Amino acid sequence: MDGSAELPAGLTTRAITTGDIDAVVTLTNACELHDVGFTMWDAADLSSDFRLDTVDASLDTIGIWGGQRLVGWGFVPDRFVWVDVHPDARGQGIGSWLRRWTERRARERGLDRVGQTIHDRAEGATRLLVAAGYTPRRTSWILTMEHAERPQDPTPPDGVTLRVFRSSDEEEALGMFEAAFAEVPGRTPSSVATWRTMTIERDGFVPEDLVLAEHDGQIVGGAFLIDAEEIWVDKFAVRRDQRNRGIARALLQVAFQRSFDRGYATTSLSTDSDRSAITFYEKVGMRVKESYTHLAVDL
Question: Residue 276 has what pLDDT?
């Protein structure tokens, strides 16, 4: 059952393919510009998601088409799903259809809940989810560092060196990220293959994108940096037994300098209330730029 009968006449549905990635990015950008005034996604993000070992795009995606135009889509990579409806196509029940589809697909995958992360200015989307029984579960923030002048050089603690990724680092570095992220309550574990897809196999990756902190020959921290008209700190972690030594600050200094040296005015990252890191980021001079709420329903 694909629910096509519930959609307005003239709309069709099918799974999203790699050939549709540009259409999806165009759709999501149109939604973000309309709802919050800026865009966050690019083709490399979605291409990486489609290659995750937990994703079957033929089953975990759906597109809604008006002729040759993509007007809505849904994606269930895990319990945190994506739904977008083009601003010109809203008010016809497409978003509700997609929400029901994500819930149905999540049940098929054996997931215990499903949720969407909504910008706090997108009040209409929040109202629709609340009316459908969704409740707030956590808050997320985008924080930004502005650097009108060149940031200071990184200052790692004694015994710690910063360097770029080498191919021999793969298992240890990605394992370090997984161990750190595994501390987040309720998080689904990720395999090394998944981490590889999100980082070193991401389209356009070069070794300088993954900055590592090393102590006594062991990788104890890292930052995965994406060049997106600013430097975006996409993955960021320090091993538990090496925290509160200044390693995290030094890794961020690398990101700040790189952003400035490439002519960008800002460096940004995201964090959420599950990680309790916002105070640290504010101490190094970052400020909250945007806020989101994750709303979910138990299945």
Answer: 73
Rounded to an integer, the average pLDDT of 182-198 is: 88
Lowest average pLDDT, out of 184-193, 207-216, 226-235, goes to 184-193
Rounded CA gap, 251 and 35, in Å? 33
* pTM score: 0.91
Q: What is the mean pLDDT of the chain?
A: 94
Residue 212 identity: L
In this predicted model, what pLDDT tens digit does every residue of 52-68 receive, in sequence order? Answer: 999 999 999 999 999 99
* Tokens 């070193």 found at: 200
CATH 3.40.630.30 fits 4-133, yes or no: yes
DSSP string, 215-272: ETTEEEEEEEEEESSSEEEEEEEE-GGGTTSSHHHHHHHHHHHHHHHTT-SEEEEEEE
Strand partners, 199: none
The CA dihedral of 212, 277, 149, 230, to the nearest 10 degrees, is: 70
- The CATH superfamily assigned to 144-291 is Gcn5-related N-acetyltransferase (GNAT) (3.40.630.30)
**Within 10 Å of residue 190's Cβ, how many Cβ atoms?**
19
Going by their DSSP bridges, the two strands 266-272 and 231-238 should be labelled as parallel
Contact between 162 and 254 under an 8 Å Cβ cutoff? The reply is yes
Domain residues of the chain, as ranges? 4-133, 144-291
| CA pair distance 264, 161, nearest whole angstrom | 26
